[in-house]
Amino acid sequence: MYVAVKGGEKAIDNAHEWLAEERRGDPSVAELSVAQIREQLSLAVNRVMAEGSLYDPDLAALAIKQARGDLIEAIFLIRAYRTTLPRIGHAEPVDTGAMACDRRISATFKDAPGGQVLGPTFDYTHRLLDFALAAEGLEPHAEEGLPAEGKMPRITEFLNKEGLIQEEPRSDQAPPDMTRQPMEYPAGRPLRLQALTRGDEGFVLSMAYSTQRGYAKNHPFVGELRIGTVPVEMEIPELGFAIEIGEVVLTECETVNQFTGSRTEPAQFTRGYGLVFGQTERKAISMALVDRALRWEELGEDDLGAPAQDEEFVLSHADNIQATGFLEHIKLPHYVDFQSELELVRKIRAEAMDAAMKEAAE
Amino acid sequence: MQTTTSANEARKGWLSLLAKAPPARLAALFDGIGDRPGFTWLRSPEIGGVMLRGRMGGTGAPFNLGEMTVTRCALKLESGEVGHAYVQGRDKAHAERAALVDALMQTGQAAALREAVLMPLEAERAGAKRRRAARAAATKVDFFTMVRGED
């Protein structure tokens, strides 16, 4: 039985007004601007863009402000906005080989051509709270060096020249799009990568961690991690040629995995791939590990029954907006559902009680 | 045909530059050159999403990465030239200025516009890129080998 219930409008309005006041916090403290969030909480902005699946730093900063810093709520706002945008088209695949790198490191080759460029990293910091940041007015100053000319070469290319790493066959086949058609399993690698790059950082991290701890172990090395800016090129029909329509910061991680060979593949290194919006290296590394674990079938590896090998399990639980939507809906009114369960339990108990009384009487 | 290709290359150059230009800078430079020409909209500014793609392993088959916001428009000057713009973000005034520059670059004002708008944008962009690359270069690791004193 469906019973419509009305009411609570006034309470809801008042709750939202109070929310706005709480969001503002103590009015004697200066209000945060969207530009301050964009510039000074940029890694939060990056995460919202990556998992919101929309590259727009100003919108992500606004969403963070509106969500009072609740990043999943902010991602929800971005996803909702995204669905209102008409799709103008698709860009050409980005050329990460031509990235203007802020950071580029390899854990496999110390003397990699192009060098180990640390960039603005938390690595090698002592993780001690810096109380100097509590004071305002600090003017940090970065040193400058002499930049090298030309592209930063790919680490996996060196292995590829020797035939020691599995090939990544180039194609220009249009990939499936999970925002346009419902997911079906087996999904295949293009859809997996799309789902992982917008998947929840915590979930993808935990899945990756599980592979490191032994559930579908695949011995990853970070062959290369690079963060930087790439141009976005798109074919413009009315012009008849492609132009750059913008540029984005991306994090790319290529893992090189030990592989002793299988029934179908010779002993060689295999690859896992992560590519994520913004400076988001924890996510990109995680994505690469999970990508590699999910490739067990095409590489002829055994199904070890590990969670990270289960494509349907991973992909259908990676999205934090789907997850939180389903999880949080249970706090909303379920009065009627619960009423029916309550009556059912009362009835079962009453029947059991009657039966027990009867038995005692006999 | 050769001239068309090089004309397209030049046009691609300024359209790409305008797409990535900071809106406030384009506004300051373009609004500084005087009155705007009259025009009619062929497509008034429209905000939309463009799906970006990556390649597996950086070089393999494509996959969908996520969208970015883009604003596009098209206009026609009273003198007949058509200007297009596809710019990053959601700034309609920025798209309008970019399309006006595109149209005016096809007129006798091209040289003046190049000097007043495109060259400063290009120089500032190159400067910002250079500063960033220089900061990255300063974080490049110089390894030195420790000699073990076993023999």
Automatic annotation (TrEMBL), chain A:
Pfam families: PhnI (PF05861). One of its GO terms (molecular function) is lyase activity. The keyword Lyase applies. InterPro entries: PhnI. Keywords: Lyase. This is Carbon-phosphorus lyase complex subunit PhnI. It comes from Sinisalibacter aestuarii.
Automatic annotation (TrEMBL), chain B:
InterPro entries: Phosphonate_metab_PhnG (IPR009609). It comes from the Bacteria. Pfam families: PhnG. This is Phosphonate C-P lyase system protein PhnG. It comes from Sinisalibacter aestuarii.
